[in-house]
Specification:
Elements (H helix, E strand, L loop, with lengths): L1 H26 L19 H24 L8 H29 L1 H4 L4 H19 L15 H17 L18 H30 L2
Helix pairs in contact: 1-2, 1-5, 2-3, 2-5, 3-5, 3-7, 5-7
């Protein structure tokens, strides 16, 4: 009974994640613009969009397996699905922390938490974090798994560096909208962001494993 309540709660959260993510992403193609938001495909130049879409896809995967558990057709969530959810959770948690600690002072927290950004910068990350850390704790994850949580940051960082530093805005690349090259300190930003991604991933794995341990006492 306790397991069913836990899985049901996780299922509801994943439905919310998938639903809101789909709706907000669709809105970018229907005229929704704002701070760090672009129309259509251009919205994917922002890590916020990419991380939330990744989290939304992971939520869809979890929805399938959680429904199977509630129907009595499965006993637990496959580890591969849990790892996928972890990577998505780590990505949106990095988005949340970047907004709260770095971008907030630049653009203003109220602006970055207004309209649909309230979900992509706060609601979505919290739903993913709570569901993964406290509810989807069927399997213990190794600390090495934390390295996988860095993948979204590393891959996006490579693209951002190429667009901003190599192509440059003057030649059709991206503006430095995240201010990672402020005062020419792009190399500091690379180290800082990837270190943050690793520490966030490590913390999520540790908290997830702690919940797993308590559940199995």
């Amino acid at each position: 009974m306790i397991m069913k309540k836990r899985i049901t709660a996780a299922l509801v959260m994943n439905i919310l994640i998938a639903g809101f993510t789909f709706g907000i992403t669709l809105s970018y193609f229907l005229g929704n613009t704002g701070t760090l938001i672009r129309s259509g495909v251009e919205s994917f130049m922002f890590f916020t969009t990419d991380s939330n879409v990744l989290s939304g896809i992971a939520a869809l995967v979890m929805i399938w397996f959680e429904i199977q558990i509630l129907r009595g057709k499965a006993d637990s969530i496959p580890k591969a699905a849990l790892v996928f959810k972890f990577v998505g959770t780590a990505a949106v948690t990095l988005t949340f922390m970047t907004v709260m600690l770095f971008l907030g002072p630049i653009y203003g927290h109220l602006l970055l938490l207004s309209d649909t950004s309230l979900y992509t910068h706060l609601g979505g990350p919290l739903l993913a974090f709570v569901s993964f850390v406290f509810l989807e704790v069927d399997e213990r994850l190794s600390l090495k798994t934390a390295l996988l949580g860095m993948l979204p940051s590393i891959l996006y960082g490579i693209v951002y560096f190429i667009e901003v530093m190599i192509i440059t805005a003057e030649r059709g690349g991206w503006k430095d909208f995240y201010a990672f090259n402020a005062n020419g300190l792009w190399y500091v930003s690379i180290v800082a962001m990837n270190t943050a991604a690793f520490l966030i991933s490590l913390g999520i794995v540790a908290l997830h494993n702690l919940s797993h341990k308590k559940m199995n006492k």
